[in-house]
Amino acid sequence: MSFSFPTSHLSFYHFLSFCSRLQLRLAGLPYLLRSLVSGKVPPPDWLRAASSRLLVLAASALCLLVARVKVMGAQLPAFTRFDNPAAAAVTPTRQLTYTYLAAVNAGLLLAPDQLCCDWTMGTVPLVTSIADPRNLSPLLVLAGVGRLLWRALSAADRLSDAIIMSLALLVLPYLPASNLFFPVGFVVAERVLYMPSMGLCLLVAAGFCALLRHGRCRSVLYAALAVLLLTHGLKTYRRNHDWRDEYSIFTAGLRVNRNNAKLYNNVGHALEGQRQFERALKFFQQAVKVQGDDIGAYINVGRTYNSLQMYTEAEEAYMKAKSLLPKAKSGETYEARVAPNHLTVFLNLANLVSRDPARLEEADTLYRQAISMRADYTQAYINRGDVLVRLNRTREAQRTYETALFYDNDNPDIYYNLGIVYLELGRQAQALAYLDKALEFEPDHQQALLNSAAIIQESGAARLRPTARLRLRRLLQLTPAVVGAERVHFNLGMLAMDERDLPAAEAHFRKAVELKPDFRSALFNLALLLSDSGRPLEAAPFLHHLVHHHPDHIKAFILLGDIYVNNMKDLDEAERCYEHILRLDPDHVQGLHNLCVVYVERAELARAEQCLLRAVHLAPHEEYIQRHLRIVRSRRQPAAVAGARQDGVS
């Protein structure tokens, strides 16, 4: 809430300007107080004018404060004891540490040498005893500030005005970070010293001018000022290199302090972003050593093990993090006691165990635990819904997604998942409606674009085909493409087939096969298109490629066998195709019938008749099999008569 404090500076400045104009200092304060208390003497005009201005500034500050509270949702952010260990300490450790931290900040202002980007966790050890010698430092700071304030209020000159203004800039901006009004989420934050540094600079300048007026060694003063500017300039130049990127700033922090687990974690995050998982793991493990009860560090270790495909070690790390979560207390809501980012341990662990289909129920239990701790944990609902779909508990998954929608009604992923659930239930109209809703919130939602286009194509709705085509072409324009481009080209090819645009369909199928050489559906549809277009010999290589990668594709063997029979006249290869089909499915009627046709082509009529009799037994109502059986029998009769005559002559 620190942005309301500049109004305090203005208020202090206005009050100071009136006081200095009337030479009001310590000597005049008793008279002013007596006049205000007794009421016999009207307050001076300058006080009425100052009061009106101060009232306007106070009202402005209050409005800013209310706006900030509304932005924060009318509640303070949730901090853990790792963010500010003193806030979780007992009396008097908490108070002693807070006062010592004021001295630490003063030291950073006076000598900004050991700078660190993060001062949380164990960076500053707690002051646990009054006998701790560090307690002397806040007394020294208080004595210094008191001496400066006495000097400012005991004299009426420009130096006093400068001192008061300097103290205002030094003290007032620091108050929100002092833990005086409420605990903050850090131990020391150098950013809160930006405005106090202005006050210190003003104080140094005022002191330097005072020394120049009263001092005799001007050359020494100028030399000291030059050294001060040079050293601070060099420090600034060097510090700029530390801020080059995340890795450099966090490793610079480790040079200053090696007792802060957060720094190790942040270095690990930087390396993780560069996909240097082995190096990142070492820093995460060091964070665990420095702070053995840091839940986030164990989560980081588990996530890195997971990236390294060391799943057993990852599960152990997640289980350790889960065991460190605070236990629920009677009458206290659990979600208020657990940092939201720590709840990811349930999601990460559940995602890990759900890799094993036999442990899906265990994953579901973990998601339900996360939801019980935080009712509006949308991602837990989404992940749980995915697991329920895999468990074939589709209706329960639908209710889970609808509950998530209650807490987050503008999340496109929830609408998308509901669309997939309705698709699983065979309700394509409702599925398309939810996918369209997902695209309203995120027009480039790739999975929604692809699946909605596929639903439109499969529905055969001619009026919606332009919409499907636009969505698929939009997918091809997106970078980077998460959805496989080969699937997009395949669906474009199917749309072109529906519209009888065979050249476009062939081009898209070929592109899909080029992007994914073992794409089952694209290979078969391309071969079928070529065969139906009178180019069966061009279709054959794609069918060979298809059955090489997918030897269980019966339709491919059917089509390939037909090409061998009708176009290549290779009955042996055709026979092998149909026999392979019958090995996959001994009762496959079409494969058996086509094998019978091969026997007929070879003039093996007796064998063909036996084959057709078996086909009739499997499919007694198929008229074309009955017709072919009659043809074979009619051919066998003249052959039998001719054979009998030949036997009689002999």
Automatic annotation (TrEMBL):
TPR repeats lie at residues 261-294, 295-328, 378-411, 412-445, 486-519. It comes from the Eukaryota. Its main location: endoplasmic reticulum. GO terms for molecular function: dolichyl-phosphate-mannose-protein mannosyltransferase activity. Residues 74-143 form the DUF1736 domain. It is an enzyme of class 2 (transferase). Its EC number is 2.4.1.109. It is found in: Endoplasmic reticulum; Membrane. Pathway: Protein modification; protein glycosylation. SUPFAM superfamilies: TPR-like. The chain crosses the membrane at residues 54-71, 162-186, 192-212, 219-237. It catalyses: a di-trans,poly-cis-dolichyl beta-D-mannosyl phosphate + L-seryl-[protein] = 3-O-(alpha-D-mannosyl)-L-seryl-[protein] + a di-trans,poly-cis-dolichyl phosphate + H(+); a di-trans,poly-cis-dolichyl beta-D-mannosyl phosphate + L-threonyl-[protein] = 3-O-(alpha-D-mannosyl)-L-threonyl-[protein] + a di-trans,poly-cis-dolichyl phosphate + H(+). GO terms for cellular component: endoplasmic reticulum; membrane. The keyword Repeat applies. The keyword Endoplasmic reticulum applies. Transfers mannosyl residues to the hydroxyl group of serine or threonine residues. PANTHER family: PROTEIN O-MANNOSYL-TRANSFERASE TMTC3, PTHR44395. This is dolichyl-phosphate-mannose--protein mannosyltransferase. It comes from Amphibalanus amphitrite (Striped barnacle). The lineage of its organism: Eukaryota, Metazoa, Ecdysozoa, Arthropoda, Crustacea.
